[in-house]
Sequence to fold (163 residues):
Amino acid sequence: MDDLFAPATGAWQRVSPRLATVRRIVIAAIAAPVVIAGIVLAVLLPDQRWIGAAVTVATLPLAAWGGVWAGHNQRTWGYVENADDLLVTRGVMFKRLVAIPYGRMQFVDVQAGPLARAFGIATVTLHTASTETAADIPGLPSDEATRLRNRLTELGESRGAGL
Fold:
């Protein structure tokens, strides 16, 4: 079954493990205030302490699961630059493979928020006329994101795309 998602040529280029770290920081930044709010509720509302305890008890395992998910998800992202198209794969439970012909790309977008920039990663987004074939490649090291953006732009222009 994994042959269905194997590239015809080449090997998958994987994204940086720093993507998982960034996602874990975001999960912790969301979970920490919720846990603190649950503790504060338990202290301030002694008659209804169960509300604060329920918030805290529900948030901690969800945050832990999110941390595990971040690592698994990061390891599933990959891309291959073929002669005529770019393959992008992802997914733990629901795997997805998208083939984007270079001639169909309209533009290439590179994004990096403050946290991603602090960790030296960026997201490259390939846009086509169809939203189904647009693809993101998150967690690329900044120099690789720049190289990929330049290469895809050159290939798109040489293939008559609207870049």
User: Anything to note?
Assistant: The chain has a mean pLDDT of 90. The radius of gyration is 20 Å.
